[in-house]
Design a protein that fits this description.
The structure is a homodimer of 243-residue chains. Chain A has 243 residues and is of the alpha/beta class. The first copy, chain A, has 2 domains: 3-68, Beta Barrel (Ribosomal Protein L25, Chain P), CATH 2.40.240; 76-239, 3-Layer(aba) Sandwich (Alpha/beta knot), CATH 3.40.1280.10. Helices cover 31% and strands 26% of the residues of chain A. Chain A contains 7 helices and 11 strands. The first copy, chain A, has a 6-stranded parallel β-sheet with strand order 8-7-6-10-9-11, sandwiched between helices. A 5-stranded mixed β-sheet of chain A has the order 1-3-4-5-2. In chain A, a hairpin with a 2-residue loop joins strand 4 and strand 5 (58-68). The longest helix of chain A is centred in the middle third of the chain and has 22 residues, at 118-139. The first copy, chain A, is elongated. The A-B interface holds A 70-71, 73, 95, 98-100, 138-141, 177-179, 216-224, 227, 230-232, 234-235, 237-239, 241-243 and B 70-71, 95, 98-100, 138-141, 177-179, 216-224, 227, 230-232, 234-235, 237-239, 241-243.
């Protein structure tokens, strides 16, 4: 079923009107009177609606049912990914959204080659949020994950350590697996931290430990910086019983 | 440590010579006498060597230790992916290799838009195998997964059903999760089958069931055709205790 996102204040219990980008999209899809669509507030609530009128730039809908989204994960997984070169962050934002991430957080580390300045970051962040919105729509999510940028590694650690479980992946860690780390309890919120192309500095890994973040391996094979977060996220979702 | 792949017959117990592409690569890396490297036969055996001579187009190595590769997965996972548009198969080949796939098998299904002809397929297959070799090298694998092309969906099912466990992912399956499917035993070899952009036809799903292949969900969110195989592969590796 086609899915539209509107601002939370636009979601009403009786009838709805789609305008702007949504109306343009509806036109492309050639929506007709009587067709059913889902309208989501991007924060986990959605309405099952029927098209009642199609006019230029405006689609009217009758609301049948208002409900909690059924497609959100039972665990809130925050994906913390260091700035990386090229379009790797865009790739991860798209895929992590499909895979059900709660939010995606980008931050700098010592070995980051890519360090966008404030001006380009503002533009990028807008673009990243659009990628998340479009992936949320395509994958049938009821919530658009927020994309955040933090200006230091320390802030990333502080924020990640506020979730129930914080995990950092390090290629030199051999003893502690993600499976061991997750099997010690049940978690409502998990943060997964991965480094840039060149990896993390040993002192950065220590800093994470000091903040109570567990350091884990992702196995014997070296994963690229854009593969590691998606592999970890898939595993956490699997562990949480999502599939 | 730098890793070179040679043909199995070139792997010797005492000394080795790198030529051609390997020698060029060694020159780019500015390998010097006394440096240690790993030489793999791409089939799971590797030698720890020291550079003993660097000359134009030829690197001589002394072999110290010959061993089974330590970085191969305990479970052989075959990734069966339907032909898809653009460079999605290339993407999956690269990532699946990093994630430890045993082999990657491409095949047509009813709704495949992309159907490369025999001539272009030959070229593509060469390219795909190169992508796998390069990803195996980068991720530190001791084995280069083979990339195969089958000319029908039936052949893909027949081949996949020969592994210990064959699983097909279908977006309309709701009851059986991958977790349920994997928890019924331990598996030495697993095949994971995913469809093209437009999904599989219901009769294709039935055909898989008839061949003893289990039909599973990958969760409540619709994954793109290039995301699904990598998500499933990550989960199987996690389940098998790889990380």
């Amino acid at each position: 079923m086609t899915r539209f996102f509107v601002a939370p204040e636009e979601l009403r219990p009786d009838f709805l009107v789609l305008t702007g980008e949504n109306a343009r999209h509806a036109k492309v899809l050639r929506l007709k009177n009587g067709e059913q669509v889902l309208v989501c507030d991007g924060q986990g609530r959605e309405c099952l609606c029927t098209v009642s009128d199609v006019s230029d730039g405006m689609i009217s809908l009758v609301v049948h049912k208002s409900m909690e989204s059924q497609s959100e994960a039972r665990v809130d997984v925050s994906v913390y990914m260091a700035f990386s070169k090229g379009d790797k962050l865009e790739h991860v934002i798209q895929k992590a959204t499909e895979l059900g991430a709660y939010e995606i957080v980008a931050f700098p580390t010592a070995r980051c080659v890519s360090r966008p300045d404030e001006k380009s970051l503002k533009k990028k962040l807008e673009r990243w949020q659009k990628i998340a919105a479009s992936a949320a729509e395509q994958s049938g999510r009821g919530r658009v994950p927020e994309v955040l940028v933090l200006d230091s590694y320390s802030k990333a650690l502080d924020r990640a350590s506020q979730t129930d479980k914080g995990i950092l992946f390090y290629e030199n860690e051999e003893a502690v697996t993600l499976q061991m780390s997750l099997s010690t309890g049940t978690w409502r919120s998990v943060s997964l931290i991965t480094g840039p192309e060149g990896g993390l500095e040993p002192y950065e890994v220590e800093k994470a430990r000091e903040k109570g973040i567990e350091v884990c391996t992702l196995g014997k094979r070296i994963l690229r910086c854009e593969t590691a977060p998606l592999c970890a996220l898939s595993a956490v979702m699997y562990h949480a019983g999502e599939f």
